[in-house]
């Protein structure tokens, strides 16, 4: 799925969104330690640092991740869903730092602001 996200990084926004939703749905089921040191948000930060050309696709994933906490279409056990929410909440500072760094890319400002809003909704309901 990571390869699809990279492949369609400049593709139609709806395609990027669907791929991002699929990755986020996977993240709901995969414990943080399986993403490497620090969970999916830190994995995403490392991917963005290593592959800046794919930032638009990665930003889409960063936007949908917190939204999937409350998406009950994804069949996940309540305990795992709560754990996923805690994982994301604990990585909020990392996510906001990524988004702050991306604000300098003028063509992505709207996308970055949408991602900020998504993370703020996670924190404040």
TrEMBL record:
Cellular compartments annotated: Nucleus
Protein name: Transportin-3-like
Keywords, alphabetical: Nucleus, Transport
Gene3D superfamilies assigned: Leucine-rich Repeat Variant (1.25.10.10)
Family affiliation: Belongs to the importin beta family.
Gene Ontology annotations for the cellular component aspect, listed alphabetically: cytoplasm; nucleus
SUPFAM superfamilies assigned: ARM repeat
Gene Ontology biological process terms, A to Z: protein import into nucleus
Record carries keyword Metal-binding: no
One Pfam family linked to the record: Xpo1
Organism the protein comes from: Trifolium medium
Boundaries of every Exportin-1/Importin-beta-like domain copy: 13-121
Domain of life: Eukaryota
